[in-house]
From TrEMBL:
Matching InterPro entries: NACHT_NTPase, P-loop_NTPase
PROSITE patterns for the chain: NACHT
UniProt xrefs under Gene3D superfamilies: P-loop containing nucleotide triphosphate hydrolases (3.40.50.300)
Pfam families named among the record's database cross-references: NACHT
PANTHER family linked: NACHT DOMAIN-CONTAINING PROTEIN, NUCLEOTIDE-BINDING OLIGOMERIZATION DOMAIN-CONTAINING PROTEIN 2-LIKE
Origin organism lineage: Eukaryota, Metazoa, Ecdysozoa, Arthropoda, Crustacea
NACHT domain ranges (all copies): 294-417
Record protein name field: NACHT domain-containing protein
Superkingdom, taxonomy of origin: Eukaryota
């Protein structure tokens, strides 16, 4: 304990004594133990069956709660099991914080249920500060003592007050004593009994929770340090003597990681999430409040950067960085790499793959690991659900089931979009609160930044001028011919592979040909493997060995067959099984090549650390995309040679979309696609690809090199025949892909709907405006005699929410001359007199537009004079300050259909202006529906409106007001309906 600061006595301190650590230990561990012991004692004494706390705890657990010895051993460890027989109310009964926190909800459930939220939170916070002490003992961690002790003081007070209220006990003396102790320790510069402190510290270090934290964190951090290298194609570079010499093949995550474009839907819009805020984003809405979700479900295309993001999170946690908020508070971060899980249960996974060395050191404690982790702050990074085997999915389900109760348990899971629904169902089944997050890859700045970082690392031994020149040439290529790769360039994996192809092909002439031949994903991988094969031959010549290209191609096809066999057996694993490895080794022997030379060139190669004697190498595909490419190459070879057994054996191709796309690419490369097109479309049928999956069909066509025969089949037999709906939302890319198809293939549809939900401004959807603008060049056969009837719905342009001030004019203009507008939702900006936007839209039936100026209202009036015969419904939102325009200047909006006028933000002082405005706009035909939301209208003003708009508003008045409208007031308004013939609808 600390002494009075004025004391002149001080024990001689060891040279390396850490007084900060002493203070933290005294206030958190010792005083925390005192507080938690006292509240447990008094809670126990308050139970009638404990007879004022005199019944031993073991007897109470056995008699009252019917616990068995095994249940007790699951809660009590070897160090504290003696408490079961210790007199609870005695001074020798001292309970550590972790044990007390476990007992409260389990043993004293009724009392715990009565505790306030504030009290429960403080109990959890004390437990986590106890765990944080274990972090603090690590030398890098610094402690702000004043801040920490101030927090502690509030927590202890909350605990005493909350428990005291629940059991009707006065803890004021205990609370005062605790405050005095904390104050004394904080102010003290002298230590009364160093030996006692060190004895207590050594006892604490023996506690299982502390040992698990110290040893477990160290083991995980050591393991994660080996995952820093994120080179996307080590399979291409292993063994290259130049690369080994320069060490350029090692790209460390901290050197090349580039923030990704990540978005999630929040408050009705699609919002970007900064990597720093990933774990603290409050986008989950529950009971009209936004909170931090327990789960983040990240989805994105293959190669969009999901795995790199996970590696970056691991790096930041391992190094105690500050790049991601709240990450340093996590006691443990567990990487569940779906492709690498070998266990069948969560317990086995944690024991065998995550913490084997730690648990070996703690084996005498016979700890139950999962219950201990439940008392800690834990983050599970589940990477690649789409690569999960049946056993791996059981592990994942176990995580969802066990770690779904507390806010300090977090899960981040990544998957491809086609598995999004399956993961969502699993999360919901286990009552997991989560949000869906879309990973898009890079934006334009990300492409440039990533390129600069990779060139700097890859060419670090070269002169700076050379590096800058190569980087400049590559960026020029991307902005020129490289644009043929389109959206693929925004995927980090594609961009990284393209950079590798650029950097590591030393033959300038070959390099130019390779780069120019890259037009899609298949050709990119084809050229990478071509470069790799050249390097293998070069390396073998250097070693005075010889293998011809035919032999290498044969082995590569065999590896592709292995990939296909593995995918169709369990749908996933990228780690090559011993059985499949043996087959590859036998094939290499049959072809008289060394297995290590070939396999290390194309696969990821690791030495098995668990083998004691003979060195055993394990092989795996680097990622699922590489596996899918090689499998497709094998299948293409079979198809070309009319050996269709493997292709036809699979009854369902659901989930093999990428294999089909690569297969199309391989057949296009070998000019076999025309001959085999029927077979390919049969596989598409087996994959259950829908005609409205425009994104798939566009990728299919790109990999087919826009083959004419394939384009006609897609246009005439696969896509919807008469009507397309291109809808943008955060879960798919159909809109842009559909526009690409519309501008590429000869479709004969009659109508199209283009809709962008409220989460996105259509101008911010990459290439959307350009594609629509360019359609006039492709749809030359479409004109006023043969138009494409078009609906445009841009909800963010239409809605008043303060987020978008853009107008839809430019998009409407793109329809000329190929499209006839039939329905419009959006915003109209000012137009030149005589060139009004809607003047010739003679098929327009429904108009819902936001109007911001008097001029736009007049523009609409002019257009309606010409097209009024077809318009059936007009809804206008006046997005202008009430009173800013003289009502007499508003023109009438006359046509034969229903008029809906929406004017938000009306106040009592605007009621006369409102009446005059509605009368001007609806002059001659009346207003069917007047909507006044977000208003500040009193009851008297609503009555005024009803009286003065009789026979003007024909059907309904909708009112949303901040004023409190009582039931009696609403009843009185109802009674006026007989006279006014206006129905009143109250919002909120």
């Amino acid at each position: 304990m600390a002494t009075d600061p004025s004391s002149n006595m001080q024990a001689e301190l060891p040279r390396d004594f850490n007084i900060k650590l002493y203070k933290y230990f005294t206030c958190v561990i010792l005083e925390g133990k005192t507080v938690m012991t006292k509240v447990v004692q008094q809670i126990y004494a308050s139970l009638p069956s404990s007879k004022n706390g005199t019944v031993p705890l073991r007897d109470y657990l056995k008699g009252e709660l019917k616990w068995k010895e095994t249940e007790m051993k699951g809660v009590f460890t070897k160090l504290n099991i003696h408490l079961l027989n210790t007199e609870v109310m005695s001074t020798s009964f001292k309970m550590d914080i972790s044990l007390a926190c476990r007992l409260l909800p389990k043993v004293f459930e009724d009392v715990y249920g009565k505790l306030s939220k504030e009290c429960k939170k403080s109990i959890e916070d004390v437990k986590h500060m106890r765990n944080k002490f274990s972090h603090a003992m690590e030398p890098e961690e610094s402690i702000d003592m004043k801040s920490e002790i101030c927090k502690l003081q509030n927590m202890y007070e909350n605990i005493y007050n909350g428990v005291g209220t629940a059991i009707d006990y006065n803890f004021s003396e205990d609370s005062d004593a605790t405050k005095n102790t904390l104050t004394m320790v904080l102010d003290s510069t002298l230590i009364e009994d160093v030996e006692l402190y060190q004895k207590n510290l050594e006892e604490f270090k023996k506690e299982v929770s502390h040992r698990l934290l110290i040893e477990g964190r160290k083991e995980l951090q050591d393991y994660y340090s080996k995952l820093r290298v994120v080179n996307p194609c080590t399979w291409m570079l292993q063994g290259d003597r130049d690369i080994e010499k320069d060490n350029v093949s090692k790209y460390y995550i901290e050197k090349i990681y580039t923030p990704l474009k990540i978005k999630s839907k929040c408050r009705g819009a699609e919002c970007e999430i900064d990597t720093k805020n990933l774990l603290t984003t409050t986008m989950l809405k529950r009971k009209n409040q936004y909170k931090i979700p327990n789960g983040l479900l990240l989805n994105g295309l293959a190669g969009c950067g999901k795995t790199s993001l996970c590696r970056y999170i691991l790096h930041d946690w391992r190094t105690k960085g500050k790049e991601i908020d709240a990450l340093e508070d996590m006691d443990f971060v567990f990487l569940v790499e779906a492709r690498s899980v070998r266990s069948k249960s969560l317990k086995d996974f944690l024991t065998e793959q995550m913490l084997p060395n730690t648990l070996e050191k703690l084996k005498n404690e016979k700890i139950d690991l999962i219950p201990m982790l439940l008392d800690m702050r834990v983050l599970f990074l589940i990477d690649g659900f789409d690569e999960a085997s049946k056993d791996t999915k059981n592990v994942i389900k176990d995580i969802f089931a066990r770690f779904n109760k507390k806010s300090e348990h977090r899960i981040l899971i990544t998957t491809r979009p086609e598995f999004l629904e399956e993961v969502g169902i699993l999360l919901e089944v286990h009552n997991f609160e989560y949000i869906i997050v879309k990973v898009y890859g890079f934006d334009e700045n990300g492409i440039k930044s990533f390129t600069e970082k990779v060139f700097k690392e890859a060419l670090h031994n070269n002169p700076e001028k050379y590096v800058n020149d190569e980087k400049r040439k590559f960026l020029e290529y991307l902005n020129g011919r490289g644009r043929i790769l389109n959206n693929q360039l925004y995927l980090p994996l594609t961009l990284a592979l393209l950079i590798h192809l650029w950097i590591h092909d030393k033959d300038k002439e070959k390099k130019q040909k390779r780069i120019e031949s890259v037009t899609n994903c298949t050709t990119l991988y084809f050229q990478l493997f071509s470069l790799c094969k050249d390097k293998v031959i070069e390396r073998l010549i250097f070693k005075e060995k010889h293998v011809d290209m035919k032999t290498i191609n044969g082995v590569l096809l065999f590896i592709g067959q292995t990939a296909w066999n593995m995918m169709t057996k369990d749908h996933v694993p990228v780690i090559i099984t011993p059985e499949e490895k043996k087959k590859i080794e036998d094939e290499c022997k049959r072809k008289h090549v060394e297995e290590i030379e070939i396999m290390s060139a194309f696969l990821e190669c690791e030495c098995d650390d668990n083998q004691d004697s003979k060195e055993i190498l394990n092989y795996s595909f680097l990622h699922k995309v590489q596996m899918e490419y090689l499998a497709a190459e094998f299948l293409a070879d079979r198809v070309k040679n009319d050996r269709l057994e493997e292709v036809m054996a699979l009854k369902s191709w659901h989930g093999y979309y990428q294999v089909i796309v690569f297969l199309v690419g391989h057949l296009a490369l070998s000019r076999e696609l025309d001959r085999q097109s029927d077979l390919i479309f049969d596989l598409v049928d087996k994959a259950d690809i829908r005609g409205i999956d425009f994104d798939f069909w566009w990728k299919f066509l790109v990999e087919a090199e826009r083959n004419t025969k394939v384009a006609k089949i897609i246009a005439n037999k696969r896509l919807p025949e008469t009507h397309w709906e291109l809808v943008y939302d955060e879960t798919n890319e159909n809109l842009v892909s559909g526009l690409e198809l519309l501008g590429t293939i000869p479709v004969k549809i009659e109508s199209i709907k283009i809709e962008v939900n409220n989460s996105m401004d259509p101008y911010n959807i990459k290439d959307m405006y350009k594609l629509m603008k360019d359609l006039k060049n492709h749809l030359k056969h479409r004109n006023k005699r043969n138009p494409l009837f078009t609906e445009l719905h841009f909800w963010r342009h239409y809605n008043i929410d303060g987020r978008c001030n853009r107008h839809s004019n430019d998009f409407v203009k793109t329809l000329k001359p190929w499209g006839h507008l039939t329905n419009l939702t959006g915003s109209l900006g000012d137009q030149e007199e005589g060139s009004e936007l809607l003047n010739y839209c003679f098929k327009l039936k429904t108009i819902s537009v936001r109007l911001c100026t008097l001029k736009t209202v007049k523009n609409l009036h002019t257009s309606l004079n010409k097209i009024h015969r077809t318009v059936r419904k007009l809804r206008i939102t006046l997005d202008m300050s009430p009173g800013s325009v003289d009502p007499a200047n508003f023109p009438s909006l006359t046509f034969r259909g229903d008029l809906l006028i929406h004017i938000p933000g009306i106040k009592d002082e605007n009621k006369e202006w409102l009446v005059a405005t509605v009368k001007s706009l609806s002059r001659g035909s009346g207003c069917d529906h007047l909507e006044l939301d977000n208003s500040e209208l009193s009851y008297d003003s609503v009555v005024y409106l009803l009286k003065n708009l009789t026979h003007v508003v024909i059907d309904k008045l909708t009112v949303g007001t901040l004023f409190d409208i009582t039931p009696n007031m609403k009843l009185a308004v109802e009674e006026m309906e007989n006279d006014t013939h206006i129905r009143v609808n109250w919002l909120g």
